[in-house]
Design brief:
The chain is an alpha+beta fold and 174 residues long. The chain has eight helices and five strands; from the N terminus they run αααββααβββααα.
């Protein structure tokens, strides 16, 4: 009797999939792994799980945008709930960062951040979907902003989530 364990998405799969989306099919497994400071096998297995979850099409090397949007809007906060930590120095995220920060008229007293030793903002830490996230977003503004929108879905109140959904739709279909 063979055992067929069910493959489950991991938080890093969302990050890898969003990076693939940002690069628009112009990448190799090795390039993707280097940009995310991980191994080629991790990237390969991640995209394999995404393909089985119908979030990625391997033959066409593209993200299934509608399925991904549906998962992000309705599932990411349940599958990978955000945990808020203590005050840390870091990089602003969720609705404490662009593109949402400029769209909200109310400023919060304590921003949300991903902990990062070279960060310039002190705020409440959100544990990111990917451990090395702060190290891999520095050179890719588009990637950073999409991840901030996903964090707003994980941690934001209804108003922030609705705004994040609207902007995320625009970003996924541009």
């Amino acid at each position: 009797m063979s055992c067929n364990p069910q493959l489950m998405l991991k938080p890093q799969d969302v990050v890898i999939l969003l990076k693939v989306h940002c690069w628009q099919g112009n990448w190799t497994y090795e390039q993707l792994a280097l940009s995310l400071k991980t191994s080629t096998s991790v990237v390969y297995e991640s995209l394999r799980r995404c393909e089985l979850s119908r979030l990625y099409h391997r033959n066409h090397r593209r993200v299934m945008r509608e399925a991904l949007l549906e998962f992000l809007v309705h599932g990411v906060k349940y599958a990978f709930p955000a945990t808020v930590g203590t005050l840390k120095r870091g990089i602003p995220t969720a609705h404490s960062a662009e593109p949402l920060k400029g769209l909200l008229s109310v400023s919060e007293s304590i921003p949300y951040v991903w902990a990062f030793s070279r960060g310039t903002v002190k705020g409440q830490e959100i544990k990111p979907l990917y451990r090395q996230l702060s190290d891999v977003i520095e050179d890719d503004r588009r990637f950073y902003e999409i991840l901030c929108l996903v964090e707003a879905l994980r941690i934001g109140k209804v108003r922030e989530q609705e705004l994040a959904i609207r902007v995320l739709k625009e970003r996924l279909y541009e």
